[in-house]
Amino acid sequence: MSREPNAQLIAVMDEAKVSNKGLAKRMQDAAAQRGTSLGTTHVAVQRWRDGTGIQPQTAAIMADVLGAKLGRRITPGDLGFFDHSRPNAPQPIGYPSTVPDVLSMLGGLADERAEASAPDQLVIADTDLSSAVLAWMIARPDGVQADRPAHQRIGMRDVRAIRDAASMFMQLDFKYGGGHGHKALRHYFRQEVLPLLDASYSEKVGNALFGAAAEVSQLLAWTAYDTGNQRLAHRYLTSTLRLSQVIDDRMFGARILGNLSHQANYLGNHTQAIQLARAAVEGAKGRATPRAMANYSAMEARALANAGDPIGSGHAMNEAERHFERADTAEDPAWLSYFDSAELMGELCHCFRDLKMRRESAEAAQRAVDGTDPKYARTLGFCRMVLAQSQLLNGELEGAVTTASLAVDGGDSLQSSRFQRYVTDFQVEVSAHAANPTVAAFNDQVHNALARLDDDE
Q1: Of 133, 139, 135, 121, which is closest to residue 275 (Cα–Cα)?
Q2: pTM of the prediction?
Q3: Rounded (5°) CA angle 373-291-323
Q4: How confident is the model at residue 87 (pLDDT cuts 50, 70, 90)?
Q5: What would the pLDDT profile of 222-243 be if each residue is shown by its tens digit?
Q6: CA 263 to CA 230: how far, in whole Å?
Q7: Predicted pLDDT of residue 91
């Protein structure tokens, strides 16, 4: 895919009298002063001059460096990049067109810290999103470059190591929230996973390797999402979607579309959430197991429920349950093992809650709470908060606050910014009863739990 040279960047660099190597060094030094690392080299600078996209944090550092050199304020927009200083402007997806592009993008993302400066804010242009989804739906797989000359030859043992690491980090994520393991996971991804994609391997190993790398990349997206960095999470998800395209893994790609739908739904972008979930369902037909199809249909149900469509959501919920009835008729990949009957019920209770179906919401949430393995602490916390909200819908104030207190107890789930929002939403819903001793005690409990969390950091 041909690109136009970035004339604005070239002009500013010429004005600042800085070379590619000089700019790369200044950017590395500036990142170090901010307490982060940046793997920028003169090669990366040349790619940007040639018109390749750039990560927002990297663009901001470049703008600051060139601004300091010239003695005036420079923005990413002045350098020919999208101006990310406007918080409500649509964010470009930049869906990578080639395998080198997606690997370069993932390398840049792995240099970014997940700490969010503006949580729960992300605007994606509909046309940009549709373009990325269409590219995934119709593109032919790239295929891996098997048996190419390289300094290192790897085998299935290396792939198993990556999958074991992904499983370990996933358990940490479920128990403690995304903020706990994101830093270590991105270091592992940058240092141990991405370099292997440039190694020599057989076609079988290569396909398995790209699949394992996509699993780690997806988990990086999820942990960034859970931390509250919506932009970083979205960039990881779209990059991972492109990674799944390399080996034609339609089932995993549909999972990423489901995750994108989940995020859009969380952010209140209902139309996009519905479209993404439907793309997952349609894109995976005939290529995914019944358990996976149940997951995609559940995402569609949640998006429709949040948009206030009881008929559409009810149909999608029925589809999810119908697929799940056949879950044991096919062998699922290991990454789908978490999606059991309690997980499905957890998704459905969110739908009933959003549709204000009080009895169904309480019953489904109770079943989800009863069936969730305690090792999935965050999931259990979510389900308990939905149960509390459902009990409140039924006028059971004391029971609702007791359930919410159980969800907050221990505080591990509070490391998830998403769980914190569940708690905050519930506090708003019971604020009319703030004088009630039970409610006051709950508010004190939340305050103390958050304070302990700060002390643990």
Answers
A1: 133
A2: 0.79
A3: 120
A4: very low
A5: 999 988 888 899 999 999 999 9
A6: 8
A7: 60
**Mean pLDDT throughout 212-223?**
95
Cα-based torsion angle of the residue sequence 356, 357, 362, 366 in order, rounded to the nearest 10 degrees? -110
- Paired tokens of 394: 């039924």
Residues near 396 by beta carbon (within 8 Å), at least 6 away in sequence: none
Domain edges within the chain: 1-89, 97-113+125-248, 372-457
